[in-house]
Design a protein that fits this description.
The complex is a heterodimer of chains A (106) and B (488).
Chain A: H1 7-27, H2 31-55, H3 63-93
Helix pairs in contact in A: 1-2, 2-3
Chain B: H1 10-28, H2 37-58, E1 62-64, E2 69-71, H3 73-98, H4 107-123, H5 127-145, H6 152-183, H7 188-197, H8 202-218, H9 226-234, H10 237-266, H11 278-298, H12 304-323, H13 328-359, H14 370-373, H15 375-389, H16 395-409, H17 413-439, H18 452-470, H19 473-486
Antiparallel strand pairs in B: 1-2
Helix pairs in contact in B: 1-2, 1-4, 2-3, 3-4, 3-10, 3-13, 3-18, 3-19, 4-5, 4-10, 5-6, 5-10, 6-7, 6-8, 6-9, 7-10, 8-10, 9-10, 9-12, 10-12, 10-13, 11-12, 11-17, 12-13, 12-16, 12-17, 13-15, 13-16, 13-18, 13-19, 15-17, 15-18, 16-17, 16-18
Classes of the chains: A mainly alpha (106), B mainly alpha (488).
């Protein structure tokens, strides 16, 4: 059975990563793990952009690659803020479990 | 190839410079000597606002940076809106920010960062610029929501907003990546052409729905509204006001541009121009649900910030109604309503900020006897709430009239009726706050007179709300000019 790695393979992996991330956001109890799930979703998007740019477009137009770089930078900023907030909560509650974030009616 | 028209970017550059200057001042000047930051921010913004108003009427219009940035009257209108909201928030937050225990130096810098992100969103001509503006706004808001570090609720609200906000950005991005895959471009104009040329496919629908979900989160459209009440309650009140007013308007600016220019062309348009009704039906259902759920859940709320949160969900529903026909009149209604919503909501939040700070409580029952304890605050709160409810002669009535008459003239009567009924329902919970303020004694509660910048903000928003209700023509003309610059 022959199996070639083409655009659809990349898109499939991307869709799987995205779904895993989405599942993780709702299923994981630890905030750090939830942040990791968000990273999975963003990286699924990166994979999509890079694959589309590689397989569909004119290779000299780099919009897809450039967008992926932008997303990496913004995701890093997001996680930096996220971890800072988690640390500030951990200092007072000694917990990073989502179940303990119940001061506000969720 | 490289067209770089600095003149068109003047307001953005000015706000970016102000952000960096405020950040530097916050780092260099010691605590206690920073009293000048609020006036500096306000007066600088007033200058930028004056320039933006001039620019709206007489400035050059066009695109720059190879089409990535659009400078038209539609973007100009929203820039005026964001700058007005930022000025009002800065003015009403002076005393509140002074009461923060630590690190108040960067509050105004963050506020300006968020404003800059909103301005970029309103002018974005491609989806990457849109995303960068959106993230600039949202990431600064994560910090602002959690700004009150010693207050547990604030940090918790920050984390919740971050998790949900980041997830919604990821969904939005996935939709953008699908658009890129289908059309090979991120430019809105290119996507429009490509979508006209190709038949509708499941991928188009999936991408449109993902995009709508991403924006729907920011404007708290109903299936994605769950975050609003928690985050609004936990955040410092001036930040809540800015979040409710300006970040929602920014998401609407981006949504209208994307909807009218691209998505509406195919998946959300009538069959006559090659689309299907399905998408528009989806929007109708979402707008109706948003109005119904927002208004009904607002009724039992006992905390003023939670009540205003659900009221703002309902307001998003009204605004959404205006987008559906994608006609100049509908967009004009949205623009007009978004502007008066700024003044109505800012008045209510300025009073909530003042009471929250003076009495240490955001519960509605602690507004008891406010008419005696602080007549100005009670009057402003009443005017703002009645404007939000749409009672003449206040501005909210004119706004709702424009919105609903625009959709009715396009044949969407059912949604307009739902809007009417739900507006009447909203009068109930708005008036119950007024009743607490005027008809109860509030014994044992202190006198809380308002003064200074906070008093100015309150009276100013009330006057604008009243003035626009009695004489809406100038703003309506600006709104129609802005709508015509977008919808041809």
């Amino acid at each position: 059975m022959s199996f070639s790695v083409g655009l659809s393979t990349y898109l499939l992996v991307g869709a799987m990563l995205f779904s895993l991330g989405l599942y993780g956001i709702f299923a994981k109890k630890n905030v750090i793990a939830v942040l990791m799930s968000i990273e999975l979703m963003l990286n699924a998007v990166n994979l999509n952009f890079v694959a589309f740019n590689r397989f569909l477009g004119n290779e000299s137009v780099l919009h897809g690659f450039v967008t992926a770089v932008f997303i990496i930078v913004l995701a890093a900023a997001e996680v930096a803020v996220g971890l800072a907030l988690v640390i500030s909560i951990y200092r007072t509650r000694k917990s990073t479990s989502v179940d303990d974030f119940n001061w506000l009616k969720w | 190839m490289f067209d770089f028209n600095f003149l068109m970017l003047t307001p953005e550059i000015a706000v970016a410079v102000l952000t960096l200057v405020l950040l530097a001042i916050g780092l260099l000047i010691p605590q206690g000597a920073r009293k000048g930051m609020m006036p500096l921010t306000v007066f600088f913004l007033l200058g930028v606002l004056a320039f933006s108003v001039y620019d709206f009427f007489f400035g050059p219009q066009g695109v720059t940076l190879g089409g990535m940035y659009i400078h038209d009257q539609f973007a100009g209108f929203f820039k005026i809106l964001f700058l007005s909201a930022a000025i009002l928030v800065a003015l009403s937050s002076g005393a509140y920010v002074q009461s923060f225990p630590t690190s108040r130096g960067d509050f105004y810098a963050l506020l300006m960062g968020a404003t800059l992100g909103m301005m970029l969103m309103s002018g974005a001509g491609d989806l990457l610029t849109l995303y960068v503006g959106l993230e600039l706004m949202t990431i600064t808001f994560y910090i602002l929501v959690a700004y009150w570090l010693t207050e547990e609720k604030s940090a918790e609200a920050g984390v919740k907003y971050l998790i949900l906000g980041a997830a919604s950005s990821a969904v939005l991005l996935y939709g953008i990546s699908l658009f890129y895959g289908m059309t090979g471009s991120l430019m809105l104009t290119d996507i429009r052409q490509a979508m006209f040329a190709t038949p509708i496919s499941p991928v188009t629908i999936l991408a449109s729905v993902f995009l709508l979900a991403g924006f729907g989160f920011k404007i708290s459209l109903v299936p994605f509204h769950m975050w609003a009440a928690d985050i609004y309650e936990g955040a410092p009140t001036p930040v809540t006001a800015f979040l409710a007013v300006a970040s929602k308007a920014a998401a609407f600016a981006a949504l209208i541009r994307v909807y009218v220019l691209t998505v509406g062309v195919q998946t959300f348009s009538p069959p006559s121009i090659g689309g299907h009704w399905t998408g528009q039906n989806l929007l109708l259902v979402l707008a109706a649900l948003t109005m119904i759920v927002g208004n009904l859940i607002a009724i039992p709320q006992t905390n003023i910030k939670r009540m205003l949160a659900f009221s703002s969900v309902a307001q998003a529903g009204y605004l959404m109604v205006g987008i559906i026909p994608a006609s100049p009149d509908g967009v004009k209604g949205v623009l007009f309503y978004a502007m008066i919503y700024v003044f109505g909501n800012m008045g209510a939040f300025a009073v909530a900020t003042h009471i929250g700070q003076a009495q240490g409580s955001d519960e509605i029952k602690d507004f008891a006897g406010l008419a005696r304890r602080s007549p100005v605050a009670a009057a402003v709160m009443t005017a703002s709430l009645l404007s939000l409810a749409g009672i003449p002669p206040l501005a909210g009535f004119v706004g709702k009239f424009y919105l609903f008459s625009a959709v009715m003239s396009e044949g969407f009567t059912a949604i307009a009726y739902i809007g009417f009924v739900m507006s009447m329902v909203s009068v109930y919970y708005y008036l119950s706050v007024v009743k607490v303020m005027y008809l109860t004694e509030g014994e044992g509660l202190p006198l809380v007179p308002v003064k200074g910048a906070s008093k100015f903000t309150m009276v100013f928003t009330m006057l604008i709300t009243l003035a626009l209700g009695l004489y809406p023509t100038p703003l309506a003309q600006m709104a129609i000019a802005a709508a015509n610059s977008l919808v041809k």
